[in-house]
Design brief:
The complex is a heterodimer of chains A (114) and B (111). Chain A is mainly beta and 114 residues long. Chain A has no helices and 11 strands. In chain A, strands 2, 4, 5, 6, 9, 10 and 11 form a 7-stranded mixed β-sheet that branches. A 4-stranded antiparallel β-sheet of chain A has the order 1-3-8-7, with no helix packed on it. The chains are: A mainly beta (114), B mainly beta (111).
């Protein structure tokens, strides 16, 4: 079956521009997560959705970062006024809605800020 | 918040040998511990997970052990093969949802 799909796979943009990253979770998965992976680093939690609500957005690094989810399916992560330190791979995962369920990851969007 | 430490950062073994990767966590409330394998250019792939009510879990050549008292869990890969070469991440969750990851172990299996 289809896994987690992320687009675009690569994005290069100039400092100061806004970017939108998209995640299409596995069908039937009510929980959706965004993580960030910087070069040579582990994965850093950003935000978690249960349906269309975000019970935990504690990992968003600044108010330039926001995310939404509509129809309990597709999610978009938006970064406004991008900075060079935003360069990273942004990974999306989804799982069943119960606690401690296996999270299945997409292949990420590699974001480069010039 | 939760802090997950992972060792070693790099590991080189010969094909057929065993590999062990160790992680410690700081939050005693953590109760879910997955392990992921990540190949270059790909997203992390779940290989095994364990919950805090279990001390050990095995799936073919892969096993995970958990010591809740010591706040320590380990990944064991036996009979390693070149295709096991990848970066491995441990993680812990106390919320049931957000995962806190270690910084990864780059495993190289040489023929």
């Amino acid at each position: 079956g289809a896994g987690v799909s992320q687009s675009p796979s690569n994005k290069v943009t100039e400092k100061g521009k806004d970017v939108e990253l998209r995640c299409d979770p596995i069908s039937g998965h009510t929980a959706l997560y965004w993580y960030r992976q910087s070069l040579g680093q582990g994965l850093e939690f950003l935000i978690y959705f249960q349906g269309n609500s975000a019970p935990d957005k504690s990992g968003l690094p600044s108010d330039r970062f926001s995310a939404e989810r509509t129809g309990g399916s597709v999610s978009t992560l938006t970064i406004q006024r991008t900075q060079q330190e935003d360069s990273a791979v942004y990974l999306c995962a989804s799982s069943l809605g119960y606690s401690n369920q296996p999270q299945h990851f997409g292949d990420g969007t590699r974001l480069s800020i010039l | 918040g939760e802090n997950v430490e992972q060792h070693p950062s790099t590991l080189s073994v010969q094909e057929g040998d065993s590999a062990v990767i160790k992680c410690t966590y700081s939050d005693s409330a953590s109760n879910y511990f997955p392990w992921y394998k990540q190949e270059l250019g790909k997203g992390p792939q779940l290989i095994i997970d364990i919950r805090s009510n279990v001390g050990e879990k095995k799936d073919q050549r892969i096993a995970v052990t958990l010591n809740k008292t010591a706040k320590h869990f380990s990944l064991h890969i036996t009979e390693t093969q070149p295709e096991d070469s990848a970066v491995y991440f441990c993680a812990a969750s106390h919320s049931g949802y957000a995962l806190n990851f270690g910084k990864g172990t780059s495993l190289l299996v040489t023929p």
